[in-house]
Amino acid sequence: MNLIECIKSAIAQLLGNKMRTFLTMLGMFIGIGSVIMVLGVGSGIKEMMMSTFKDVGKGAVTIQSNNWSPEYMINQDDLAAIDSMKEVQEAILFSEQWYGNLKDYKDEDKMIVFMGTPYNMDVVQKLTIVEGRMYSEKEELAKANVCVVSETYAKAIMGSTDRKSAIGEMVELDIAGEKHSFEIIGLAEQMTFPGMPEEFMPIIIYIPFTTMDQITNFGDLRSYAGAFMTEEGYDPNETAYQVGRLLDKRHNTQNGYGTQSATSMIGQLDTIMSIVTGFISFVAAISLLVGGIGIMNIMLVTVKERTREIGIRKAVGASNGEIMRQFLVEAVILTVLGGIIGMILGYVGAAAIGSAFGLNIILTPSMITFAVGTSSAIGIIFGVYPARQAAKLDPVEALRYE
């Protein structure tokens, strides 16, 4: 019996016992499907993280004081010293984030996040203005009471479907216990997070750094937070370390400032995702092991049921190798079929999760290779023993078997 005949015989055998075949492949469905679903969702999350950080820039580094004492604040001389480093392209200061609420058109509280940022904030973080404009350097120097808000402001606060209607409106913010009014001059692209409905996203309000500094600090352009963009060709992580030590030296502190690059954040998130994916894949691998044992068990039962058939084939000249190949092909077809179906089910499950949480799920060649390769390996590993048992049967004893 050649390979083609073996495949036809195996398919006929599997179709002849549909329920048993389905139950045997169930472990493969669950195992392969779970791994594909985890890999698919994981790739979607990674793509989302990369698209989020691409607006920040791989060379961007944030600086944060580890102490809230005024002497730890980064001043203009510190900023100039950082700017003068050959590894630094440009450095800026911004104020820490403040949180609050605004009453919307329904008189309900809507969460807001506001902060003081320089007019050139896009040095380290992309800020896309969709309507109106960003405040200018002149307005920042004048400490103007202007602001840029999220593009959803008109809909969320005013109840208007025309987002342009927010331009020129006044927004009143409670800052450090005092009310301050700001004119809206621009709308920025709304920050989003996969899976979070728009109505639950806070409205972000950008205020000139000098204005915020005048209200919350000392008006001398110092801050507890800053950022810089690393020059191309230099390592952001190494530059971040050097900047931290520079500030320590200037302020006579030790580890007084924390720095974090966008690349290190991406690396940390990638590590976390790899650990989670690895753990879930390990759990799914147990299902594959159970499925493999189930396949071996069913194949042993099949050998037992077809003992007389094996005896007849041996009596007419079939070799041990041919008998072994027939049962091994049957085991491989069983597992590969289960792997392919499991891959499809896993992708459908991942796509459903991706649709619910706004993730882009892609079935990569590595996933297909994993599904087919793993299922084939399981078929070979767990099919060898039953196939050998079938090949070792004595033809005389097999013909006597009832």
Keywords:
alpha+beta, 4-stranded antiparallel β-sheet, 18% strand, 7-stranded mixed β-sheet, 402 residues, 12 helices, 11 strands
Fold topology:
Layout (H helix, E strand, L loop, with lengths): L2 H14 L1 H37 L5 E6 L10 H8 L4 E7 L3 E6 L5 E9 L11 E4 L4 H5 L4 E5 L2 H6 L11 E6 L2 E11 L14 E6 H8 L8 E6 L5 H16 L5 E5 H44 L1 H9 L4 H38 L7 H27 L3 H6 L2
Parallel strand pairs: 4-9, 6-8
Antiparallel strand pairs: 1-10, 1-11, 2-10, 3-4, 5-8, 6-9, 7-8
Helix pairs in contact: 1-10, 2-8, 2-10, 2-11, 8-10, 8-11, 10-11
What does the model show?
The longest helix has 44 residues, at 262-305. 54% of the residues lie in helices and 18% in strands. It is α+β, with helices and mostly antiparallel strands. The strands form two sheets. Strands 3, 4, 5, 6, 7, 8 and 9 form a seven-stranded mixed β-sheet that branches. The protein has a four-stranded antiparallel β-sheet with strand order 2-10-1-11. The mean pLDDT is 84. It has twelve helices and eleven strands. It is elongated, with a radius of gyration of 33 Å.
How would you concisely characterize the structure shown here?
The protein has 402 residues and is of the alpha+beta class. Helix content is 54%, strand content 18%.
In whole angstroms, how far apart are the ends?
Answer: 25 Å
* SS summary, helix count: 12
The amount of helix comes to 40-55%
Q: What fraction of the residues are assigned to beta strands by DSSP?
A: 15-25%
Structural class: alpha+beta
- Uncertain stretches of 5 or more adjacent residues: none
Number of strands: 11
Mean pLDDT: 84
- Rg, rounded, reads 33 Å
The description of the largest β-sheet is: 7 strands, mixed
Basic shape: elongated
Order of helices and strands: HHEHEEEEHEHEEEHEHEHHHHH
